[in-house]
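Ticket closed. Logging final result for GAF domain-containing protein.
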Amino acid sequence: MQIKNQLNTQLLTQTDVKQHILQLIIPLVLISIILFISFDNRQAYQYLGLFGGGYAISYVISYFTHKQNIQRLWRHIEQILRINETTYELVKVSSQYDSEQDFIDALLLKAVTAVDDAEMGSIILIDNNTDRLQFGSVVGLDIDKLSQINFTLEETFLYRLTKGRLDRTVIINNMRNVNSQSTLTDDDQFVLLNASSKPICSTLSSPIRIDGELYGMMNLDSSMMEAFGEYDIA
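Final structure:
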């Protein structure tokens, strides 16, 4: 990743020794002046030790908290760069795929790789004439089992959670609870949750539109509860 390689995470998350000394010494010098003006030497030293120790502890806690925040932001930046690179690669080489199937297979694999905690996924295609659905591509799932499910657009999680608008990405952080409220048969509900080596607990579901028309939907799945958040939607 060219942009990532130009940035140094260590430089972003570290403060050099001179900065530490300035940030520690200057406030302590000011506190010392005030204390020695206000109190006699013995009291001033006692208060200075008390304030100095408290300030040093607070400084250390604040520094490591700040460092963790910077590192978390850097991980988010890395994910954005990775997703941008993935999108660029797909657009750049889309004409090189021999078929639509090859392209959606590549699209799904890139999406699973790009989103943190996504372990598996699927692309569901829509027959606009019948509103019936079929699994067009899967990663980490048994497509033979999933192909046995007979369901319509109205029975999907995305349709239910967007109240039929299908205009946004949604998160299902407890698939078992949401699945149990669907109109699918018990057998189909079981297959949806267990078409992988590990049961699906969380799903990120997004519509795919081409020229304004709903083409299908992409589901990214995880075996962890509450694996996805608002950042993953963005």
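The first strand starts at residue 120 and ends at 127. No further action required.
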